[in-house]
């Protein structure tokens, strides 16, 4: 017996808006939410309410992208710097 958590339709948690409780059977197990990006997902109200699930997955993708971009920027910057040092004409000293 799972305790029913009272969540109202259209109640919003992070990026997810609660639509209705799911039937908990088949592959669409879980309660129904719609993400800010427009994607409908099936997940547990419990996970969403506790903040375990914040979006359909697009939120974590964005975070990952930001980290990747930062790493790429750093790498490219270092690469360019090393490269320009190689090309530097040290004979002037
Ligand atoms: Zn989304």
Question: Which features does this protein show?
Answer:
alpha+beta, binds zinc ion, 93 residues
What does this structure look like?
The chain is of the alpha+beta class and 93 residues long. It has one domain. Helix content is 38%, strand content 17%. It contains two helices and four strands. A four-stranded antiparallel beta sheet has the order 1-2-3-4. The longest helix has 30 residues. The protein is rod-shaped. 9% of the residues are buried. The model has no long low-confidence stretch (mean pLDDT 81). It binds zinc ion. The site of zinc ion has 8 residues, from loops.
Bound molecules: zinc ion
* First-to-last CA distance: 80 Å
- Largest sheet geometry: 4 strands, antiparallel
How would you write the strand order of the largest sheet?
Answer: 1-2-3-4
Topology:
Blueprint: E1 12-13, E2 16-20, E3 31-35, E4 40-43, H1 45-49, H2 58-87
Antiparallel strand pairs: 1-2, 2-3, 3-4
This protein binds zinc ion (ZN).
Residues 15, 35-37, 39, 55-56, 58 line the site of zinc ion.
